[in-house]
Amino acid sequence: MEWCEASERVKPGSRVVSYIWDEAIVNDMLPEEARFTFVPRGVSTETGDILSPPAIHNADFILLHLNNFVGYDERSPDLPPLDELNAKFEPVFTVKRGDMELAWVYGRKP
Question: Using an 8 Å Cβ cutoff, are 105 and 78 in contact?
Fold first, then answer.
């Protein structure tokens, strides 16, 4: 989210769809008045509530974390439709810890 707030690629009003689960971390990272429209995944790790995943057809950017690919605790992976993701989006920013990729911002392909 810091990249989304700082990057010139993310225009005011851009739609940023997050698949990141941990609501507390997301809320801590989200600017109080973001210049983009933020669509959360809708999962509370405290209560275990899981809402339907957000659509990506109208997203400009998508936030993904390693856990989306491998699963959260005992839950299955939680990803947007991969055919649509790969056809219409590409990684534009990667968060790494050492050599390990942990999170990605996918942007809509031109």
Answer: no
